[in-house]
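Target chain:
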Amino acid sequence: MATKGNPGDNRNNRSPMSVFIIVGLCGFFYILGLWQRSGFGKGDSIAVEITKHTDCSVLSDLNYETHHDDDFGTSDGSDIQVKQFKPCDDRYIDFTPCHDQMRAMKFPRENMAYRERHCFPDEDKLRCLIPAPRGYATPFPWPMSRDYVPYANAPYKSLTVEKAVQNWIQYEGNVFRFPGGGTQFPNGADSYIDELASAIPLDNGMVRTVLDTGCGVASFGAYLFKKNVIAMSIAPRDSHEAQVQFALERGVPAIIGVLGTIMLPFPSGAFDMAHCSRCLIQWGSNDGIYMKEVDRVLRPGGYWVLSGPPINWKTQFRAWQRPEYELEEEQRKIEEIAKLLCWEKKYEKGETAIWRKQLQSSDCTDRETQTTMCATTYSDDVWYKKMENCVTPSKPTGPWKPFLERLNAVPSRITSGFVPGVSMEAFEEDNRLWKKHVNAYKRINKIISSGRYRNIMDMNAGLGSFAAALESPKLWVMNVVPTIAEKANLGVIFERGLIGIYHDWCEGFSTYPRTYDLIHANGVFSLYKNGCDAEDILLEMDRILRPEGAVIFRDQADVLVKVKRIVKGMRWNTKMLDHEDGPMVSEKMLFAVKQYWVAGDNTTSSE
């Protein structure tokens, strides 16, 4: 990249024509560079050479710099030699530190325990940079990414053979194509979703958040976006290699996960709907413990969709190659547990059945005498907590509101006093503050709203106001609430029609490498200053960030100086900026862009 000049080096003296020419050249060579990296066309070496000498990076477009910048913390050791992190071996290209396949085999297989999170201890952690595969290309923009993924980004063809007749995925040249089919909807997700919409209000915004268990390549979630419905798709890392990776490459929210022995990392009463399409979960086993877990995360009035065995077993048992008596007993158990949970069956046709959870817990007065009720005190304290075979009482909620209205309306959890220390006024002020912050981000990084960043993560989401301020059909935000956060606000985030997850940033996130385009880290390193090593958190951020992806840090100046010094050795370009209210505010911003480099390549996009 071109050498950066002094912040005051005549930038304001450029004529409109020269600015227009520079912008035009930047755009042309940026597209040419992407074309080269995608493996198409010729003239690649020319594109690379010109891109090296063209000031086209996101960071060069920052319109103001901190008055301190590199002078911050010179007394804090910023002149110490920067530690250079080496690339990991190529075999770690798709490394998932808490879902490693070989490590999983050491754990019990009963109830899928071996497919749950099993992180490496500190002494065995990788402390190197995960490389991208050779030929890695920037994903296609949405909605094209829904249907096409560059082969080089996830080079696994097994599903194209195993699921060939079900229209999951096809290999065509140098891309994978996703026709939109699934095991239960080989003719496409659109018609299947329209069938569900005949019994579930998917068209009017009343159903906004969906949990899709056993999601495959997430075509169900991908096509729900047409109805402005957002699904959290979960699937284990198993023999169906890279199904969650495919989902995220397509621009669909997904995590590696399984219904096993520990509770799902979501609050009680979170989702408007839960869905299982041939997900192979034994719903009737263990006294219905998995259905009870779904009941916990469903909000009152939420829907549960079960598509596939054992529904319609009388007609399908031969096609499924399973004994009639086995399927009959399986459905009997499901119906029995649904009745115990006070779910009302609303629909059954073909191989699809739909139940609805009671809107008011008072409508289910007999349940407490028929089953064990869970303690309500810690119903959202779920991180690594064992599932209990009990029913979680529903918290009182107000009437359902459609999306987008619910995005900025004060959630009933706040008005009802379920979030201590957060008043209606505090919520509204938080909303205003983050609109201001996001507007500042957009002035600095002008492509935030362009569609360039589809998969976005907020590492310390608070009340979800960062995501609310960004809301757009071009993007989605994974709102992470750290397990050590003072307030457990994830329920508020879901009530706003957003999605998220609990997580401890001292451990690896449940995703594949290179799955997020933009990461927002507000106060994360102050929060964890006594929790774990900042290097470990930053290496995990590097793992899940795409090449040429961006990071926005917001934290105290001394904290960001240390962060900046670490990421200098991680092949990131950075720029420190003042708070939007001026240099006298101790909180600063650090913008970063991860350089492009691939396995076996000692060069980067900025060298």
